[in-house]
């Protein structure tokens, strides 16, 4: 399945969920369309890579060495792998790792599986690429306290590192910050979670899951409503949601400068989660059973709660056990090792035919149309005709704009006085992307 197909599925799944859940109490006893869900959860056959950092064996080998290299840290005794341990699914097995100051870090160490398919990185989405993410923990004073400029000088004096950088970057055979972060990112893109029994079921093996696990899957895509956020083969929509944890951490809100996104954190993937306990951004839930209990009865009420959050539902003890049984099928039976998928350069998003319009809808977590043409001097009206709070974010050479929380019924109007190409996203649901091409009258 292509990246474009996966993106399309991410966009239409909320609509399909609404259709499946329509009809009142009858849906609780209905049988899900498993053939549909087999397609929706199918694994891709390539790992995406950016055009400006194609994956090569030499680059990955260098990145793997840098991942273990303590010279990147200030004290010289900490590496990326100190927190991201391979035997613990590239996490660390504790609620919050102890920082260099002897105090717990603010957030849980996230696992690194399947980062290549991400749209943003860190719990609050503050990094826009894996390359940008790679430098963050190194330079964080409480994590690795590294000085990359000093570390680069140290590495450049190492003959083996000189040779490794030259092999990885023959077009620029030098030890630089850019090449270092590119190598780390190239390695991290190879961390693809392996197939599990659930993937065998997806391929058509009905015997791969037992009766309770299938019942748990039915709850996941039906009554429990988990699939509203945990979508696609990685089981994440890459969006930011306030799920009602009792934490003072504001998450995405301060990053966007939008209070409507306070307490919102990126939906974690459910792949290999058995090996990454405890759970949530703060490690506050010890087991998958605790996670299920939170959604059933532990949600803290506040105005910023996600509209995609399932309403508290009654799950029997048996149903909770079945849901956890299904979640376990998304993890390997033994500590997992990365799968091998060939890399492929893929442009983000399927090609969309641009149309001439001045009004765009945001219904069902999608800009519609997804690409438009305007003339210089025209204004664009973006209508939130959805049930969720959205945000309009533009960052280009000719425009920098960030709306506040855009509530259902609200509109954002943008004027364009310069020709050019503009990319608009929703900062709360980054899979929502709109392409705007503005031309002069003569160019049209």
Description:
The chain has helices spanning 3-21, 34-40, 57-67, 80-83, 130-139, 148-156, 159-168, 177-188, 197-202, 211-221, 252-256, 288-298, 317-328, and strands at residues 47-49, 240-241, 265-266, 343-345, 355-356, 359-361, 371-375, 379-383, 393-395, 400-402, 411-415, 420-425, 433-439. The chain has 444 residues and is an alpha/beta fold. The strands form four sheets. A six-stranded mixed β-sheet has the order 5-7-13-12-9-10, with no helix packed on it. Helix 12 (288-298) packs across helix 13 (317-328). The radius of gyration is 23 Å and the shape is globular. Residues 1-29 have low confidence and may be disordered.
Tell me the number of strands.
Answer: 13
Given helix and strand content, the structural type is alpha/beta
Unreliable spans:
1-29
Distance between the termini: 37 Å
β-sheet strand percentage? 5-15%
Oligomeric category: single chain
Globular, elongated, flat, extended or rod-shaped: what is the shape? globular
Q: Approximately how much helix is present in the residues? A: 25-40%
Series of secondary-structure elements, N-terminal to C-terminal:
HHEHHHHHHHHEHEHHEEEEEEEEEE
């Amino acid at each position: 399945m292509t990246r474009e197909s996966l993106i399309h599925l991410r966009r239409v799944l909320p609509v399909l969920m609404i259709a499946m859940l329509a009809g009142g109490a009858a849906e609780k006893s209905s049988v899900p369309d498993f053939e549909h869900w087999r397609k929706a959860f199918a694994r891709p056959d390539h790992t995406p890579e950016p055009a400006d950092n194609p994956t090569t064996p030499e680059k990955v080998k260098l990145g793997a060495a840098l991942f273990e290299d303590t010279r990147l840290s200030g004290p010289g005794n900490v590496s990326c792998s100190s927190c991201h341990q391979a035997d613990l699914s590239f996490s660390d097995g504790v609620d919050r790792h102890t920082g260099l100051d002897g105090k717990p870090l603010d957030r849980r160490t996230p696992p690194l599986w399947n980062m290549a398919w991400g749209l943003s990185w860190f719990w609050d989405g503050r990094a826009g690429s894996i390359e940008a993410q790679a430098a963050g923990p190194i330079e964080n004073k409480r994590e690795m306290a590294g000085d990359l400029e000093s570390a680069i000088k140290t590495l450049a004096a190492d003959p083996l590192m000189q040779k490794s950088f030259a092999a990885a970057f023959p077009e620029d055979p030098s030890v630089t910050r850019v090449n270092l972060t590119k190598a780390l990112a190239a390695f991290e893109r190879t961390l693809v979670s392996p197939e599990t029994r659930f993937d065998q079921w997806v391929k058509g093996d009905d015997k791969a899951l037992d009766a309770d696990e299938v019942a748990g899957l039915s709850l996941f895509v039906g009554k429990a409503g988990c699939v509203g956020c945990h979508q696609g083969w990685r089981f994440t929509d890459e969006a930011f949601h306030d799920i009602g944890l009792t934490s003072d951490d504001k998450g995405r809100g301060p990053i966007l400068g939008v209070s409507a996104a306070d307490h919102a954190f990126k939906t974690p993937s459910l792949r290999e989660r058995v090996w990454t306990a405890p759970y949530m951004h703060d490690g506050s839930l010890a087991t998958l059973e605790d996670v299920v209990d939170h959604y059933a009865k532990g949600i803290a009420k506040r105005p910023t709660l996600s509209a995609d959050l399932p309403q508290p539902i009654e799950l029997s003890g048996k149903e909770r056990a079945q849901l956890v049984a299904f979640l376990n099928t998304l993890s390997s039976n033994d500590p997992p090792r990365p799968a091998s998928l060939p890399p492929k350069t893929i442009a983000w998003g399927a090609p969309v035919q641009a149309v001439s319009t001045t009004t765009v809808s945001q219904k069902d977590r999608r800009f519609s149309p997804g690409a438009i043409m305007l003339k210089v001097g025209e204004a664009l009206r973006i209508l939130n005709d959805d049930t969720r709070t959205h945000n309009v974010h533009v960052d280009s050479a000719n425009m920098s704009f960030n709306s506040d929380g855009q509530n259902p019924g609200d509109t954002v109007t943008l004027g364009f006085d310069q020709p050019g190409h503009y990319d608009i996203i929703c900062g709360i649901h980054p899979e929502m992307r709109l392409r705007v091409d503005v031309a002069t009258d003569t160019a049209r």
